[in-house]
Structure formats: structure tokens, C-alpha cells
Design brief:
Order of helices and strands: HHHHEEHH
Radius of gyration: 19 Å
Number of strands: 2
CATH topology: Fumarate Reductase Cytochrome B subunit
Distance between the termini: 12 Å
Structural class: mainly alpha
Number of helices: 6
Strand content: under 5%
Low-confidence stretches: 1-6
Number of domains: 1
Largest sheet: 2 strands, antiparallel
Strand order of the largest sheet: 1-2
CATH class: Mainly Alpha
Mean pLDDT: 94
Helix content: over 70%
Bound molecules: protoporphyrin IX containing FE
Shape: elongated
Length: about 180
């Protein structure tokens, strides 16, 4: 039984990347919301962290996608109903798309607004801006894209967490344990 258990679990690397990226994404939402009520100079500092953190999420997502291609995730639980399995596949795939699209749109917005100024990665090094135009329409487009994709991510997050809680507390089928090595 224990062999089947561990074989049905995500690899350690997938688990670390899942929770690290989840924390950074939650942090970036909170950072963006909190900064809205800050005085201008504090807001600029906070948005500097938001941008560096967002670029970090983009880079870690590329690592995560590479990892996923190298280490196949365990098959979805056989006990899932067909609609649950389909919804899980759609949600997970959309998450990967959005983990790239949200920070890329943010980077596009920064690049257009800052006229090609790089993003300072917590003062350690610079990450290059995207080669985009700096006119009002381009700024507006990336702003809209960043907002719409971030909102879609928030909706998906609600669905994903609700599903995780349903499997943990109603179905009690061990789904959570696949992403948490210490849970049996
Ligand atoms: C923004 C935050 C999050 C993102 C972007 C995210 C993304 C993902 C993705 C893409 C997968 C599929 C992994 C794969 O098969 O490659 C996954 C699986 C999973 N996530 Fe999350 N997640 C987040 C937060 C959470 C939270 C807060 C929970 C728990 C409350 C959670 C619980 C799970 C579980 C249990 C699985 C495994 C599902 C299974 O395959 O059976 N996630 N997550
Ligand atoms: C997964 C990563 C990210 C998430 C979840 C995220 C989320 C958000 C959210 C929720 C907002 C507030 C939206 C609004 O109401 O206007 C916002 C604003 C903003 N984000 Fe991000 N963001 C991410 C990455 C980035 C990156 C990488 C950059 C730039 C390098 C960036 C630049 C900005 C800017 C400049 C704003 C302010 C827009 C305004 O003035 O209204 N974001 N972000």
C-alpha cells in the first residue's frame, strides 16, 4: 500500500514549487491591494517589490513547467467523477497559462509605462523590459490584460481551493496528501 501511496504523490520538486509559487502569488495579490491605499512614495517602493516578485513567479513557473515535463505528475485519482477530472485538467492547465500571462502582462505594462526601463530584482540585478511601444494605447492594453488575467486567476484560485477543501473534508479521498508529503 505504501508503494502505491508514494507513487501516487507529486514529486518533492513539484510540491516545493507548487507551494512556493502559491505563496508568492498570494503575496503579490495582497501587495497590489495594500499598495492602493498607500501614500505615493510608499506605493512606489511596494510596487517595486510587486514587480520583482512577479518576475520571480514568471521565472519559477518556467522552471516548474520544465520540471513537469521531466517528471510526469501522478495520474488523477481514479475515484474522481468524470466531470471532476475534466474540471481539474482545465483548471490546472489554465493555471499554468495564467502563471505566465499575468506576470507577462504586468511586465508589458511596466515596460510600456517605464519606456523600456528594466525591473530591479530586489536591488540584486536588473531584469530587462519587454520591447513594446510606450504610447497610451499600449499602456492601456497591458493594463487591461494584467487586470483581466489577474481577476481570472483569482476566480480559478477560489475554485481550486474549494475543490481541495471538498476533497479533504467531504470526499476524504487523499487528494491533499498528494501535494503534502506529511499528510497521510
Ligand atoms: C495561486 C495559488 C495556487 C496555484 C497557482 C496552484 C496551482 C496548481 C496546479 C497548476 C496544480 C496541478 C499540478 C500539476 O498536475 O501539474 C495544483 C495541484 C494541487 N493544488 Fe494547487 N495551486 C495554488 C494553491 C493551492 C492551495 C491554496 C491549495 C490547498 C488549499 C492547493 C491544493 C492543491 C492540491 C491538493 C493539488 C493536487 C491535485 C491533484 O492532482 O490531485 N493549491 N495546484
Ligand atoms: C503572478 C504575478 C502577478 C500578480 C498576481 C499580479 C497582480 C496584480 C493585481 C491584482 C494588481 C491590481 C490590479 C488593478 O486593480 O489595477 C496589479 C497591479 C499592477 N501590477 Fe501586477 N501582478 C503580478 C505580476 C506583475 C509583474 C511581473 C509586474 C511588472 C514587472 C506587475 C506590474 C503591475 C503594475 C505596474 C500594476 C499597477 C497597475 C495600476 O497602476 O493600476 N505585476 N498586479
Amino acid at each position: 500500500m505504501s508503494t502505491t501511496d508514494s507513487a501516487a504523490r507529486y514529486s518533492r520538486g513539484s510540491i516545493i514549487l507548487h507551494w512556493l509559487i502559491a505563496l508568492l502569488i498570494i503575496g503579490n495579490f495582497i501587495g497590489a491591494w495594500v499598495s492602493e491605499d498607500m501614500p505615493r512614495d510608499q506605493k512606489i517602493v511596494m510596487m517595486g517589490y510587486h514587480k520583482a516578485n512577479g518576475v520571480l513567479i514568471l521565472l519559477l513557473t518556467l522552471v516548474r513547467i520544465g520540471w513537469r515535463l521531466a517528471y510526469r505528475p501522478p495520474a488523477l485519482l481514479e475515484t474522481l467523477k468524470s466531470w471532476e477530472a475534466a474540471l481539474a485538467r482545465v483548471t490546472h492547465t489554465l493555471f499554468y497559462v495564467l502563471m505566465l500571462a499575468v506576470p507577462l502582462a504586468g511586465l508589458g505594462l511596466h515596460s510600456a509605462f517605464g519606456k523600456g526601463k528594466p525591473v530591479s530584482m530586489f536591488g540584486l540585478f536588473d531584469f530587462p523590459a519587454l520591447p513594446v511601444a510606450s504610447d497610451k494605447a499600449t499602456i492601456g492594453l497591458f493594463h487591461e490584460l494584467h487586470e483581466v488575467t489577474a481577476t481570472a486567476m483569482l476566480v480559478l484560485f477560489g475554485l481550486h481551493v474549494a475543490a481541495a477543501l471538498k476533497h479533504q473534508f467531504l470526499d476524504r479521498d487523499g487528494t491533499m496528501a498528494r501535494m503534502l508529503p506529511f499528510l497521510r
